[in-house]
Amino acid sequence: MLAPWIIGFCVFTLYPIVNSLYWSFTVKRYGTAARWIGLKNYELLLSNDDLGKALRNTVYLAIVGMPIRIGIAMLCAALLARPRRGNGVYRTLFYVPSIVPAVASGALFYFLLKKGGPVSSLFDLFGAEAPLWFADPAWAKPALIMVGTWALGDLMLIFLAGLVDIPRSLYEAADLDGAGRWAKFRHVTLPMISPVTFFTVLTGLIGVLQSFDQAFVFSQGVRRGRLTGEPEGSLLTYAMLQLRHFQDGRIGFAAAMAWVMFVITFVITIAMLATRRRWVHTASGDLA
Amino acid sequence: MLLTIARHSVLIGLAVMFALPLLFMLLQSVMPLTQAKTTALWPEHLEWSNYTRVFDRIPLGTYIVNTLKVCALTVTGTVLSCVPVAYAFSHLQWRGRKAVFVLVLSTMMLPFQVLFVSQYQIFSELGWLNTILPLTVPTFFGDAFSIFLLRQFFLTLPAETLDAARVDGASEFSVLTRVVVPMARPGIMAVAVFQFLFSWGDFFGPNIYLSDERSLTLAVGLVRLNTAVERLGESNLTMAASVVFVLPLLVIFFFAQKVFIEGVTLTGSKG
């Protein structure tokens, strides 16, 4: 039963892992032998300005974008948690954007937000001036956050499942204690769905680190070919930079970048799992 | 009463925000070119010929065929390879099962970037560049996410039913094909639908392995079109191509909504 997986694991996972780890310590181009240079690639990586830019963009997306995305997903789920007529229609409407492939939503939002596009027309209707989303470094990342938030359907469904699982008796007990709406949300809902929130934050962080498609489509639209000048530099993600080095034939360096990506993913995962008890309310114990 | 009104206004507001981009996509896809270059929001007449023009501009038909081939093969590959592995991890007892399962899970943490720099060399030496093989062949050897999802599903099946079949003398293979597969159909459907969705929309892999115009998938073709028509202001063509790209997924979604929702919920429920 396991035979195909074992073969596949060796050929498509284990061998590439060993290979790319080795290459990350070498100068490597396809068609030539790898030449050992020790930690040079990693040293170069740490002193690379573009990398700093990409990481700053990533941190921005994580700190500003993720709470917006998770917050709105939670709001959508909370509004639909109790069975009511019409919920199904809303749930479908909220979910549909997340089945739109990322490059398609990238192309769509590029069209929506660009100069003279529908959004700027809407701004005109209200006599306001639309931001130059892609030409202005300050607005490029908010545009990215907007597409990401539009496609929050998966998150909403996960929260919805979490909310439905909360026993009604907890809310009834809170009612008896005279708790208001906010108090119930703060002291019942939030702790009870904290395992779900934890999971979405963890996968969200990893997702931000690996984000590529929409930023790539945006920056291709702004200017073909270049990556790191402005304004497209404000869209630069780590994965875009890694791909650029790969396509320019710096395979050893691209491998080093990939391993740094893995280390960051690993550290985030371990750090979050290790501090899990502080974030997540476990079933026993008091609710306050 | 006031609360009901407030709740409904928020819901309607959100619904508009979620639906409006898709509406603009549709409207732009039938916008006459003269209007497409302006700030017009509403087409003065419906220019359906945009759809035929985009097929003339780029080999969209070829892209559709290529994409369908990739999807058909990856869905087949994923289901054929992951179902037995998930079965071995859920209903078979063997030494080292737990350790190997942890190994499977830990490969989920591995970024694709770590793998593709080396996989690229393998595929290029095999002469597979500009073919769909690098995108499809690996799926016949199982992937961690699908194995994990299927295992979660298989674990919900009652072990007694399986044991009953074994007592009747069924081999493990026929327990799998005659008992487990029919019972786990919703889970297998979910994995198939997710794989289809992923392969249909995937850009990163096809963008690395495909460069010949005739070998592209829809996702890569769309990005190239979007970049190419940017200067000509023909966003109506990009949006027509986008509709062609997205519409099949919407159709699948409306027919398989339950599969989607249960599948997504399952991925999130146990981390």
Give a written overview of the molecule:
The complex is a heterodimer of chains A (about 290) and B (about 270). With about 290 residues, chain A is mostly helical. Chain A has one domain (about 35-280): MetI-like (MetI-like fold), CATH 1.10.3720. Chain A is built from 14 helices and 2 strands. Chain A has helices spanning about 5-25, 40-45, 50-80, 85-95, 100-115, 120-125, 135-150, 155-165, 170-175, 180-210, 215-220, 240-245, 250-275, 275-280, and strands at about 25, 35. In chain A, α10 runs antiparallel to α13 and α12 runs antiparallel to α13 (about 250-275). Chain A is globular and about 75 Å long. Mean pLDDT of chain A is about 90; it is low at about 285-288. Chain B has about 270 residues and is mainly α. Chain B has a single domain (about 60-270), classed as MetI-like fold (Orthogonal Bundle), CATH 1.10.3720.10. Helix content of chain B is about 75%, strand content about 0%. Chain B contains 15 helices and no strands. Chain B is globular, with a radius of gyration of 23 Å. Chain B starts with a helix and ends with a helix. The mean pLDDT of chain B is about 90. At the A-B interface, α1, α3, α4, α5 and α6 of A face α1, α4, α5, α6 and α11 of B.
Task: Give the helix/strand layout.
The complex is a heterodimer of chains A (288) and B (271).
Chain A: H1 3-23, E1 26-27, E2 35-36, H2 40-46, H3 49-80, H4 87-95, H5 102-113, H6 118-125, H7 137-150, H8 153-164, H9 168-176, H10 181-210, H11 213-222, H12 238-247, H13 251-274, H14 276-279
Antiparallel strand pairs in A: 1-2
Chain B: H1 2-29, H2 33-36, H3 49-57, H4 60-90, H5 97-107, H6 112-125, H7 133-136, H8 144-155, H9 159-167, H10 172-183, H11 185-201, H12 204-209, H13 218-229, H14 235-255, H15 257-269
Q: How many extended strands of chain B?
A: 0
Low-confidence stretches of chain A: 284-288
**In angstroms, what separates the terminal alpha carbons of chain B?**
39 Å
Radius of gyration of chain B: 23 Å
Helix-strand category of chain A: mainly alpha
Query: In DSSP terms, counting alpha (H) and pi (I) runs of 4 or more, how many helices of chain B?
Result: 15
Total DSSP helices of chain A:
14
